[in-house]
Amino acid sequence: MNNNELFKKIILKAEKNGYDFPVHEDWLKDFYVHNNLMGASYYGEGWEESINSIIFDLDFAKAYFGDEDICMKCGILEGYNVLCPKCTSMCLGEAWEYHIQQYAILNDEERLKYLEKFL
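The chain above was modelled as a monomer; its predicted structure follows.
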């Protein structure tokens, strides 16, 4: 799957979970991504936006990853009240917060691969 197809699937999953993507689905079929993938813009009906501005948008992240409680240290989703059963951390957060932190430190190409794991 090329990066365009992957990004379409990522957006469609987020939309299915309530993300309000600012263009119509039929437009998604025609969008393209320039060589510098994440810093590039995609275009449709006179509208343009950086891909990074979408994947770092809080509404996108909440729709894509959800808001379940997660250990902010190791990412375990198992329910716990005080200590994480895996790493004994007491740092609870929401899943979307954890995942944004994880892909924020990745390079542009690795970010799509990270998001792909959750399709």
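The longest strand covers residues 41-44.
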